[in-house]
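Box S2. Input/output pair 1.
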Amino acid sequence: MIAPLPMVDTRPLIREIDAALLDLLRSLAPDGWLRPAVGGWVVRDVAAHLLHGNVRRLSYDRDEPSPVGGTPAFDDLVTFLDTTNHEWTAVFRQVSRRLLIELLETTGSLVSDHFDRVDLGGPATFSLVWDGEPSSPAWLDIARDYTEKWHHQQQIRDATGRPGLAGPRYLVPLLSTLVRATQRAYGPVAAAPGTQVSIAIDDLDRCAWRLERGEAGWRIGLPDDGAPAAAIHLDADTARRFFMKQVAAREARARARAEGPPDLVDPFFTARAVLAR
């Protein structure tokens, strides 16, 4: 039986990427804020969306219960997020760039201070949802916030032609969190107990995992000595773009190296770790 994935403490990284984002936003000329970033959003919309994430975290995790009453069903949550994201960014187009930066700085610091007080092994306010599990530990909920913050600041960097926060320090914890989305993707896949699917990021150390079919369903864990029935190999850039809906499944499949029967390979390319933009 494969060993479960270990805890990843992303709190120091969240402080780092928040500080780097503020430096980037302060350096932008006015037209840089209006560069197309994702979908119909420009850079300032993505910055406002990051502020929205901070405000939601403080309001519903630190202060009061969520108005949506816990973790909604997957499809309901996607609808809720799409609606509230649109409403928030529309309102914040009336807010100055300077004030937006100041609000990001203040709320980001408050979120990190809150995370520092959280019992990492305790229950999360919200489950990860896209990993297919009914509940999550607090550390994994924080890691989900890390993936969101990293993802959206990278969209701003891509839009403005700035270098990304790459390298193992940022990408290993990022991908080690995102890969959990494969559990939900393989949920309906029938296989004999003990069947394994290997997943590896070939250009990063410490980024290899196994999906294993147990009596109760599929679980993601660390590699063991067993022979996998299927194997999927990707590079780090393709993997993070695929999980975060920046690369279509067909393109990711073309970039990947996959071995094994299609019924064990194809479900991987339905995994997604971003519910909205």
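Box S3. Input/output pair 2.
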Amino acid sequence: MVVLTTLVHARPADPVPTGVETRGLWVLRHTLSSEDRIRAMVRTAQAGGFNTILVQVRGRGEALYRSALEPRAAELDGQPAEFDPLAVTIDVAHRAGLRVHAWINLDLVAGATLPRSRDHIASRHPEWLMVPRDLVGTELRTDPHSPAYLGQLMRWTRAAGDGVEGLYLSPIPAGAQTYTADVVHELVSRYPLDGVHLDYARYPDDGFDYSAIALAEFRANRLAATSAADRQRLDQRAASDPLIWTKTFPQGWLAFRRDRLTALVGRLALEARATRPGIIVSAAVAPSAEEARVGRLQDWSLWASSGVLDVICPMAYATDLAAFSAEVAGARASAGRIPVWTSVGAYLLPVADASAHVRAARKAGAAGILVFSYDSLTTSDAGDSSYLTALRPALLESPSGVGARRSATR
């Protein structure tokens, strides 16, 4: 495990008091690109009635903080080397009484263009990237460290459309799991964070990960339960059909991939809590637990019931109020005893509708409201936002029924 000297010496903000609703604002990485933007954002969040900000400090495998592991984010081009966006954010926000959660994109590590830095994890370890089933015939015959490997993967990704946002780091290789755990350890050990918020803790869909390492790991996982005769037969067929083990054990293949992701999320949560006791670990998830489990191999209801997470944050972006209420209520039921901080996709809604969604979320049992996003709702780098000003009355209405059962103070 990488051990790093703490760069920020201020303590975290006080934990959320029992019974106090979390009112959070998501902040995209562009806003962290200068100190002036950060200060304007904190002023706006405070004036808007928020008590928590979730700041995107790892968007595409690049760091908007001091990192010995990942390259400096492109958003910081032109800024002095000593500028540390996360340190500034924590200092300014804590002085304003706001809690700060580091929002990190977990598996998504690159967008629609190849990383520019050779130090990027996709460039250093392309063999750890998820591979779609469609590319098995070509990628498995290509050296992962040749330019052709990443080139093929990127061309396929661009052609895949909106469903695949970029390149994903697989949770299956042991080295990739350790690397991601080191990223979280670095963040939590260096900064007095109040929380770690995991986004993209999922596969793009159930057609990933068919990388050579993942297929080999699955074969190894099945060996003990496979007879010698069947093993020999499957290995002989694998020469012409590299997917034969996954086809023979389809349910096992689904469970194997889900379990590896669950193991990674659990490892990260343990790492964060061991490094900074009291930190809150949350995750952005699909609102339907069953859809997430089947379609994204994201078993978040298990993460909730087993205590892996402190908070579930369903991305309930339905614009219809009844559908939104149903999403929140369904997520609340699947989350069991842990709190739900539900998203409100304000960027899709007129402010009157967003206000109605805030009220509906409370009625459906949410312990917190997260508004997406500061960047889409403000009209300038100065942080001017008539939208957030108009949303403030609904945000500050006294929530009913928010009690100790749904508070997250760990």
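Caption for Box S3: The chain has one domain: 22-406. The first strand starts at residue 22 and ends at 27.
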